[in-house]
Design goal:
The chain is of the alpha/beta class and 221 residues long. The chain has a single domain, classed as Rossmann fold, CATH 3.40.50.300. Helices cover 37% and strands 28% of the residues. Helix 3 runs parallel beside helix 6 and helix 4 crosses helix 6.
């Protein structure tokens, strides 16, 4: 589903990562691990098209998307959930999801309902302002927004960051459902190694701008 070959990117004159190659199989879940500041979020920004790459290639389901803008990649089937529970706080839960539906060429009301089905607790709060939600509920809403565009590949940037254990368990269940039951391809950036190894098929470790290890998750335990 995703093929990344010899990718390099950075900010200004500074390279954040170089010569990064990895694959996410159709229906697979790969977890990208690494310490803070090694470039994991930067890599996701480059994959979704928010940061220009300096070298290398990104392919989605065989199609080269390296030079496409972010909105073009989303229309091709990429979904992205950045850090920070990115929602519109002044809008209700339903309105947040409607924004995605109205800006998408393919998403429908049924897609919004299907995204809410992944988070039953959130489905009971559709009229509540997003600014009044808990941190965990906002994270679930951010994920539901990405799902409403019907992605084939989902990029998740530390979805459990700062959340209490009960919400982390709900996020884990949602990821498992999307991966195991819906066959969604996922690239997950995560700090919690145990969580990552439980949900992922494969892992990769980024350090000092390069991938230093990779393999099946049972090999990483």
């Amino acid at each position: 589903m995703l093929s990344v070959t010899a990718l390099a990117a950075g900010y200004g004159g500074a390279a954040v990562f170089e010569d990064v190659s990895l694959d996410v199989e159709d229906g697979g879940l790969v977890c990208l691990l690494g310490r803070n500041g090694v470039g994991k979020s930067t890599l996701l920004n480059a994959l979704i098209g928010l940061l220009p790459v300096r070298a290398g290639e990104v392919r989605l389901d065989g199609e080269a998307v390296t030079k496409m803008a972010a909105h073009q990649r989303i229309r091709r089937g990429m979904g992205y959930v950045p850090q920070g529970q990115a929602v519109f706080p002044q809008l209700s839960v339903r309105e947040n999801l409607s924004v995605v539906r109205e800006s998408s060429r393919t998403a429908s009301r049924a897609d919004v309902d299907e995204a809410l089905d992944v988070f039953p607790g959130l489905a009971e709060l559709t009229s509540r302002s997003a600014g009044l939600l808990s941190g965990g509920q906002r994270q679930q809403l951010a994920m539901a927004q990405a799902l409403a565009s019907r992605p084939r590949l989902l990029l998740l940037d530390e979805p459990t960051e700062g959340l209490q254990p009960s919400i982390v368990a709900e996020i884990e269940q949602a990821i498992e459902r999307l991966h195991r039951h819906r066959g969604l391809s996922i690239l997950l950036v995560e700090q919690f190694v145990d969580f990552a190894l439980r949900v992922a098929d494969r892992y990769a470790v980024l350090d000092h701008g390069s991938l230093v290890a990779a393999g099946a998750t049972h090999e990483g335990r």
